Amino acid sequence: MLNLIRETIVSYAFIERNFNLLKRYLSWEILFFSYSIVNALTIGLIMVGRGSSEDVLYLVIGALIWGFFSIMMREVSDAITWERWEGTIEYTFMAPIYRVTHLVGSCLFAILYGLLRTALVLAIMPLFFGEHIDLGNANWLTMSAIVLVSSLSFIGIGLMAAIFPLLSPEKGQAATGIIQSGLLLVSGIYYEIEVLPVWLQPISKISPATYTLKSIRAAVLDNASIESQMGNLLLLLVIGVLLIPFGFWVFHLGEKYAKRVGRLKRSG
Questions:
Q1: 3-class SS at 191?
Q2: Total domain count, the chain
Q3: What pLDDT digit, counting tens, does each position of 98-120 carry?
């Protein structure tokens, strides 16, 4: 019990450290946050004057949810990049803590930071879209459940993506973007997956983002209940339960390789 309490405190220390790093580079975070707003606005404005309010909201939901999950995947991966920039990666990896403790803290920070950024963007959207953004019919309980459960899957993906900056300080972060681009293509973020080539559509079935977007849109546009989305919730839970330990295992293999070939001594 005492060991569990200790590891929980250590995990919180990593959350606090990452927030302190954000404060140190606050001007850059404001710049990136501004980009998130502009990106969501650009996507949503495509349908203003061309489609119904539901069409506008359809695109805005895609932009917001994809922004949230992109932040989560990137922040888990960036936990390694931060270590390289700060020159502390060797010390962190030699510290007398479990690697799970280190990564859980980074994952929890990613979730909290992603929720904060997405909530701020969502609060600003009505100022630009007015009557086109109507969330009065949204089922917030269903939305919260879907976001919480699906976060597990994207944390697992983020853990796997984190090995790229671990193995390559020069190109690793860019490689993480490749994974995000692949998910963006096949998951129906801004369009229905039926418009994809027939040979590509089966790949969308293994992307957690596909089921997340379907349920989120159902909750916002049709006031769908948790019961009606239980199938997607269970599927996302299974995917998350499988991906998180798999992600830890992949990261463990990457860490062992990086230590063996001396990659950790190279700071970015």
A1: coil
A2: 1
A3: 777 777 888 888 888 888 888 88
